[in-house]
């Protein structure tokens, strides 16, 4: 924290303390905080205001809380924040901070504080959110990773929620390019959830950025994640939904993006696949159907990545029999019996070839004894 500026008698430490205290004051939610800031401009002015001035805006109990000395619990939490900020990779951005993401500041109720680990400049970079199912198919994860990698190569930062499935694949793809990635969490920035993504989270903290509006120490309660989703869409110029079941949280993010005036894109899938239902619903509601990265880059006025069309064929190393089996499989889920009839293979040979293709990452087993091709 900086020393006192001669031109400003309030030090950076005092300024941050006032913002933290405002957020921690009981009864001061997003709406009340906004009304107070509209009237008094800064947290310091709020805490310097008289009871009568505060009472014109807030209830008696809130006005009393704002006039009283800082509670011991808040002072203790400030000590935790100061210890956390001792790490040079950690930053606490306030709503009036020049580094606060400009698109988030445009939200109807922006967060007062953002706790960030890593490259804070990415929070203001041109970004695309990629979201989807936690229970992603192999093809869905491959699509998320490939689109994220290509968008990152074009200089766009990939934003997602650090969940399993599509989110994790999107972060992995984003880390491959100069755009990198931002993980918006539904916990405190000092917590990693889910634990299975711990290694990925640590890499994002080193090479990208982890950000949260929740106080340090906040655990993964269910109500945090829908609220977190508005930040994912809010800091981006567009949202891509890769796989989503009907009624999934990813659809909440997409619809919030529409309300925020962002572009929404969706990857279609099989009419038989439950995880395609959400994307198809979004497309019916006006989302743009995409089947290549240029379908996103061109509307966003980013130079197309025509070189992607010249990538090597991932099936080139397969035998003729393996390629013929993949051609027979197509891109719809198919049972082994039906596939055997289509490909003209007897059960033993078919099982061995399916296993070899699965191990090579060209297909995956789905529930119900079905197989689906994975386009890499």
Automatic annotation (TrEMBL):
Domain Smf/DprA SLOG as annotated: residue spans: 92-298
InterPro entries membership: DprA, DprA_WH, DrpA_SLOG, RuvA_2-like, WH-like_DNA-bd_sf
Domain of life of the source: Bacteria
SUPFAM superfamilies found in the cross-reference section: MCP/YpsA-like (SSF102405), RuvA domain 2-like (SSF47781)
Cleavable signal peptide: none
Gene3D superfamilies hit by this protein: 3.40.50.450, Winged helix-like DNA-binding domain superfamily/Winged helix DNA-binding domain
Record domain DprA winged helix: where: 311-369
Family matches, as NCBIfam families: dprA
Recorded family membership: Belongs to the DprA/Smf family.
Name of the featured protein: DNA-protecting protein DprA
Naturally occurring in which organism (per UniProt): Massilia mucilaginosa
